[in-house]
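Reopening this ticket.

The earlier resolution said the output was attached, but the attachment link was broken on my side. Pasting everything inline this time so it's all in one place.
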Amino acid sequence: MDISERLSKFIDEHTDEMVADTMKLCAVNSEKGAYEEGKPYGEGPFKALNEAMDLCEKYGFDVTNYDNYVAAVDMNDKESGLDILAHMDVVAAGDGWTVTEAYKPIVKDGRIYGRGTSDDKGPAMCALYAMRAVKELGLPLSRNCRLILGTDEECGSSDIKHYYAIEKEAPMTFSPDGEFPLINVEKGQFRGSITKSFDGKLKDRDFIYIKGGTTVNIVPGKAEAAVCGLPLSDILPHAKELEEDTGVKFSFSENEGSVVIAAEGKGAHASTPENGKNAAIALCTLVAKLPLDESERRTALLNFLELFPYGVTDGSGIGIKMSDQVSHATTCSLDIFEMTEKELYAKWDARTCASSNHENCVEPAEKSVREKGFDVETDFLPAHVVDGDSDFVKTLLACYEKYTGKKGECLAIGGGTYVHELKNGVAFGAVGDTTDTHMHGADEFMIIEEMKTAAKIYAEAIYELCK
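Inline output:
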């Protein structure tokens, strides 16, 4: 029996244990909480991290605790070779669960359901069991494989910053917090905040407020505005026309001389804004079409819509439209908008292609916004690119091909992972390339067969990269 067959047999024989360990971790509500002494992200992440450390020690691994920010699990005491980056924290449970409650994991129809099953406790267990396979089969290694378990990936990754302030990066790093085959390119992230102040005086026919969006990386699916001095009959024709053009639905209620307009579009992640229907921009567009009195605020609204027209998600309105072969096209999403009698506040989230930089992205955007009469502040994180022809990447893809029979290829994404700022870091599984696990949503799940496959791929990769 060759090494691959032995690794595969080990994972098959220990799948039930891997599922049980995953469920034990997923039963812990590890949403970020308030800081406590010794618990930097609150009780939940602390408890999940310690549960994971107990498992790793149970299986004979040396574990180092970095102040309850991160735990490092070492295969051996040899020189650094490969780091595997996973996390124990989760996003909020949210509503809409039907198969089970978020923190009462169950197995049904070949899947484990529960918050964290696919993001990222299940994948973390795939990596741990891969390490178990290599270790317990006694396969000879010349370098160390280290599993790094963090606790703040969902809320800024300050845990990993804490870790790398102490430790050096390994020559190679992958995170199982993505999808197969392999993600070697993560677009840059360019965010901007737009502000403007007004005198606070309303005209006879005016809008009182427009507001939509609460999260900077989510296309707003709902928005609301209030208009004074206009009968509903003056609003309805414009609303009907815009509904036909955009697919965004409008509803109305009258309240003490004003008309409240609610817009319902479709939310989407800021990395794929073309999949959404931006309710905030649609509602701004409707208000701008109404026969309101001329004012500084109305002019500002019209100028704003020139920067962010409805349906335009390539950033051309603020001068950042770009594309390249490495990471494809830049996307741009206006995710937060609020305009009252006294001020305007808005925030965009652009995912920029690899060739974007301060000169061709940040400067044009800031210039475009200021020329329209707004103040702006920006934050730019360049794209992350790892050579797809490196021996590291080729080895990972070969392992993927061996166990799936599918062609291994590199992917570029608009989202960001734990490895974004690591020189030689990629995202590698653990979710199948065609599987939607409802990550971050209700009824999150992980397919057990895909966990088995991922664990086998990871075991092979650990051996090949560290032998």
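Reporter confirms the inline version is readable. The mean pLDDT is 96. The chain is about 30% helix and 25% strand.
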